[in-house]
């Protein structure tokens, strides 16, 4: 089973990329340190760059990141946790809400995505929470290729 993750407030880009790869990732910039640490007790692995938190959740429950570059952060996280890029899982999760997206009928995407996107794509999904529309397209594949090259 995929590990459940939590990323501290200093690494928003990393959180977005992990969600994009399909990993369940808590990220809440308004969350305090104590609440963040409590996520480890709920079975999540904490990924943090906050030095004051280093060592506070046990080695198996925390990935300590030093580098400020999101690409290095991603590479480190992937290496430490042995994450894999599974193309079938990528883009299966809303990058804003961290909930799985659901397929919708193509007609429901009309007028909610740019016309050229609607004309050139068959499969659409939406986030059940924020209603953002997702579709598989060349920009997604480019994004994935970029992340693969980082990893
Ligand atoms: Zn959403």
Strand content: 15-25%
Low-confidence stretches: none
| Structural class by SSE content | alpha/beta
What is the makeup of the main sheet? Answer: 4 strands, parallel
Q: Compounds present?
A: zinc ion
InterPro entries: Mut7-C_RNAse_dom
Protein name: Mut7-C RNAse domain-containing protein
Pfam families: Mut7-C
Structure description:
This protein folds into 2 domains: 4-81; 102-150, no CATH class. The chain contains 5 helices and 7 strands, in the order E-H-E-H-E-E-H-E-H-E-E-H. The protein has 151 residues and is of the alpha/beta class. 32% of the residues lie in helices and 15% in strands. The strands form 2 sheets. It has a 4-stranded parallel β-sheet with strand order 2-1-3-4, sandwiched between helices. A 3-stranded antiparallel β-sheet has the order 5-6-7, with no helix packed on it. It is elongated, with a radius of gyration of 17 Å. The structure holds zinc ion.
């Amino acid at each position: 089973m995929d590990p459940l993750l939590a990323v501290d407030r200093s690494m928003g880009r990393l959180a977005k990329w992990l969600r994009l790869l399909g990993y369940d990732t808590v990220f809440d910039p308004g969350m305090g340190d104590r609440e963040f640490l409590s996520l480890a007790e709920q079975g999540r692995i904490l990924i943090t760059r906050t030095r004051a938190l280093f060592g506070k959740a046990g080695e198996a429950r925390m990935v300590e990141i030093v580098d400020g570059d999101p690409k290095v952060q991603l590479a480190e996280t992937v290496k430490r946790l042995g994450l894999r890029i599974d193309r079938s899982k990528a883009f299966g999760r809303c990058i804003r809400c961290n909930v799985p997206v659901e397929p919708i009928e193509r007609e429901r995407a009309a007028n909610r995505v740019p016309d050229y996107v609607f004309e050139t794509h068959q499969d659409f999904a939406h986030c059940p929470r924020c209603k953002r529309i997702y579709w598989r397209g060349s920009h997604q594949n480019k994004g994935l290729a970029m992340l693969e090259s980082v990893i």
